[in-house]
Amino acid sequence: MTLPPTRGTPGIRVAVAHTADLDTAALGAARALLVEAFDGDLDDTDWEHSLGGMHALVWEGTDLIGHAALVRRRVLHTGRALRTGYVEGVGVRADRRGHGHGAAMMDALEGLVCRAYDLGALAAADGAGGFYAARGWRPWRGPTSVLTPSGVVRTPEDDDCVYVLPVTAPLDLAGDLVCDWRDGDAW
Fold first, then answer.
1. pLDDT tens profile 151-184
2. Cα(149)–Cα(20) distance, rounded to whole angstroms?
3. What's the pTM?
4. Which alpha helices (DSSP H) does the chain contain, by range?
5. Which residues contact 4 (CB under 8 A, 6 or more apart)?
6. Where are the beta strands (DSSP E) in the chain?
7. Considering only CA atoms, which of 130, 140, 76 is closest in space to residue 103?
8. Alpha helix segments (H runs only) across 64-169
9. How many CA atoms are closer than 13 Å to the CA of 168, on its beta-carbon side?
10. How many CB atoms within 10 Å of residue 45?
């Protein structure tokens, strides 16, 4: 699916596609863009977290200038396992930031969250919390944890970076939030 141009910029388009529908070149370009956007701090596990779901891609002609992904996860809250659309790998090429491309990608992914999930969630990179809060994402105020093969383990280092987008699930933002297990960073 191709969306309208971002902020009316000619030659810019946002496309939404599942990982399975992206060719090797597009996936390679997305990974390279994220490596650059995160100043080289993107390892194989971080990239793996962005795969298997939907991608919002901003193209300027044939150049990829933005990427964001939405993957399915389970999050436990108030005794319920919530079907969660989890945002990963959000980045815009440095020379194209500040032109609404991040907002256009999030518009696309938030639409998917609202139509298919109980909840949206993400772990905001340093300095990005204000961007998400302005879009209606709410900072999680309670303790965060991960459900490991050995049981629930607290993740206090993530307490200040998790944001949620309420959809259908009643939430106590000061309650416990437990994400499912995966290799690498839990959140």
1. 999 999 999 999 999 999 999 999 999 999 999 9
2. 29
3. 0.93
4. 24-37, 44-49, 101-116, 129-134
5. 13, 14
6. 2-3, 12-18, 54-60, 63-77, 80-92, 119-123, 138-139, 144-148, 151-154, 162-166, 177-180
7. 130
8. 101-116, 129-134
9. 12
10. 11
